[in-house]
Design goal:
It is a single chain. This protein is mainly α. It is 63% helix and 0% strand. The protein folds into two domains: 40 residues, Arc Repressor Mutant, subunit A (Orthogonal Bundle), CATH 1.10.10; 117 residues, Tetracycline Repressor, domain 2 (Orthogonal Bundle), CATH 1.10.357.10. It contains ten helices and no strands.
Length: 189
């Protein structure tokens, strides 16, 4: 009879996020996370393949914190809610948040969050063939803004100014979603 698992993947990801929050992303190692949950580093390999898989799980964990908007809202309202939730996640986890700029979504749970964004884009009027491209561009804006905000780039501006800047840019981006049209064949790289 197999022994019951002493730890779960969820506990590992929680510990990984705690290490990143308390000691910085550079401190995230298999050995450090294992010590945090009270097991040997080898025990983690039952739940994650390697450090890259651990970091993919951290992306998943960050995205799992997003408040998913009600499906009955318009596509634009759902996108806006996700954008606000992403900024809040950045404020809670400034160091770990930078992973969203450096790692693609790779786990099933992270891909499910991306699918929520895809559905909102479709409902906002984005043609199906432009949904992935539009998601990349909007996500880059929102993640980049939030990372700049928590990284200190906008430190000279108070929160009200940052919020107003974000909302101004958001209105311009989201107001044009239904007008997006594909480029002529062969023009897209």
């Amino acid at each position: 009879m197999p022994r019951p698992a002493l730890i779960s993947r969820e506990q590992i990801l929680d510990a990984t996020l705690a290490v990143a929050d308390e000691e910085g992303l550079a401190a995230v190692t298999m050995r450090r996370v294992a010590a945090r949950v009270g097991v040997t580093a080898m025990s983690l390999y039952h739940h994650v393949r390697d450090k890259d898989d651990l970091l993919d799980g951290l992306v998943e964990r960050l995205l799992a914190e997003l408040v998913l908007p009600e499906p009955g809202l318009s596509g634009e309202e759902r996108l806006h809610g996700l954008a606000i939730s992403l900024r809040q996640a950045a404020a809670r986890h400034p160091d770990a948040f930078s992973l969203l700029l450096r790692r693609p979504v790779a786990t099933e749970a992270a891909l499910a969050v991306r699918e929520v964004v895809y559905a909102a884009l479709r409902d906002a009027g984005v043609p199906d063939d432009l949904v992935p491209r539009t998601e990349r561009l909007i996500s880059t804006f929102v993640i980049g803004f939030a990372a700049s905000e928590v990284g200190g780039r906008f430190a000279a501006h108070d929160e009200a100014v940052r919020d107003a800047d974000f909302e101004w840019a958001w209105r311009h981006l989201s107001g044009r979603l239904s007008a997006l049209t594909p480029e002529p064949a062969g023009a897209q790289a």
